[in-house]
Automatic annotation (TrEMBL):
Domain of life (superkingdom): Bacteria
The protein, known as: DUF1097 domain-containing protein
Pfam families membership: DUF1097
InterPro entries, A to Z: DUF1097
Keyword annotations of the record: Membrane, Transmembrane, Transmembrane helix
Lipid biosynthesis found in the keyword field: no
UniProt keyword Transmembrane helix present: yes
Residues that span the membrane, as ranges: 25-44, 56-78, 90-123, 135-153
Length: 168
């Protein structure tokens, strides 16, 4: 089977499973509604080079970004609150700068992956009315699931490609 078709089949089948997890067994947990974060992490796995490196980068950077995002939201409502309408923009700017500075650390060097985590934490805070600390672990949980699905989809696609190449 061609690599193109193998990946499409692997991703398609696993996308059904990933979505089902979030709308059925996880629907009554803190992970409810966070399937979109799982898909971001899944894509981040490939964006970060795939394989174990892509998975490690996704887990480290997106989780770090989520922590920085949580801190930014807390700062906007705390020490920066006196800035009024500028509190959130300043907090986001400081958070973005922290992500860029942290990229000097090897495992955090993929800035876009950290930004994905930074942005992902806003969803449960703004859409589900969770506190920043209540949102953090569910976001990281969805990141872990998505990174795992990225790794699995790549592994399954590679296995199907190798079988097809050996048969030909």
């Amino acid at each position: 089977m061609s690599a193109y078709l193998a990946l499409a089949l692997s991703v398609g089948v696993l996308a059904v499973l990933d979505t089902w997890l979030f709308v059925s067994p996880l629907a009554t947990t803190a992970l409810a509604g966070l399937v979109w974060i799982s898909f971001i992490a899944w894509g981040c796995h490939f964006h970060s080079g795939g394989g174990t490196k892509g998975t490690a980068t996704t887990l480290a950077c997106m989780s770090f970004g989520a922590v920085v995002g949580m801190a930014a939201v807390m700062a906007a409502g705390g020490p920066l609150a006196a800035l009024g309408g500028l509190a959130a923009p300043v907090a986001v700017g400081v958070g973005a700068a922290v992500i860029c500075l942290a990229s000097a650390v090897s495992i955090l060097s993929t800035i876009p992956a950290s930004v994905y985590g930074f942005a992902s934490i806003a969803g449960p805070i703004l859409l589900q009315d969770r506190s920043p600390t209540e949102a953090l672990f569910p976001v990281i949980g969805a990141i872990v699931i998505g990174a795992a699905f990225g790794y699995l989809s790549e592994t399954f696609a590679n296995a199907m490609t190798k079988k097809g190449a050996a048969a030909e």
